[in-house]
Amino acid sequence: MRIIVDTMGSDKGCAEITKGVIEAVNEFGIDAIAVGNAAEIAPIVAEAGLESRIEIVDAPIFVTMEDDHNVVIRGEKSKSSMVAAMKLLSDGKGDAVVTAGNTGATITAATLYISRIRGIRRAALAPIMPLGGRGGVLLIDCGANVACTPEYLLQFAYMGSYYMRFAVKNGGEELPRVGLLNIGTESHKGTELQQEAYKLLTEAHEAGTLNFIGNIEGRDIPFGVADVVVADGFSGNVCLKTLEGMGKLFGQELKRIMYASLKTKIGGLMLKKDLNGLKKQLDYKEIGGSPLIGISAPVFKAHGSADAFTLKNAIKQSIRYVEGDIIRRITENIDKMKVSR
Question: pLDDT, tens digit, for every residue of 321-333?
């Protein structure tokens, strides 16, 4: 397997991302294409002795976090490392793309240079939140589509279910539990979007193609009530950022309490192993990246502040996505995702 990595445009810089590529090649036994500033990448790859395993494609121009997402369409940045990586994937030079660059530009470039799966209305970002056990909770969408239709949400539910079942849980007969993010559990709650989506998801459940458990509220998500949480991009992004903030606050407060007195310091030392395990479980770096589900080839978005460890884990997620054959499963089930009325 060969993973294409856009090494440019992240907060940590090209060298740090390249180190993550090297870690992934060594740990997962894959080959890679590192796209970016060759003058910076080559010495790092040579030092690791991986010149035969990591191909370098020189593309020093990059999309910044401040750039408008449309810069990938025309002008100098249509030749950026991100666009070069997408074109390599489109040309069949690799099995997946991983980038830690500008999210909006990633979505635009993937849609333009690779295209959506035929029949899929919108691609969606689907991060796995390290909550609730059972492999975490998948949130789809978390910001790619601020304005949605009920049909979009239906398609998100199917795509998220396939990803969770075959890439995260490694197959099996059990259908992942799908919940619709809403302001209440009753079927009449929410705007027209949620009410109509509820009807479509219920029909899919009755047909036996989705395991729809109904509406869920934000407070239910950390407890793993659903395996897949379906939302429009606006609500999903607010939900994601709130959960991230609460996780950070929890960590800060726990640390403050542990160092508050001699008694709590002793208690902290006694619980250190368990607390480190909890910290690892809740760390987004352990997940690494989110797929842009609905694109006709695997594209993964790592966090903009990704370090080498995070990038390595994003590559791991992309490998699981490829091995789970998610795109084929979506493509073969498009008819189930269409709204007849």
Answer: 999 999 999 999 9
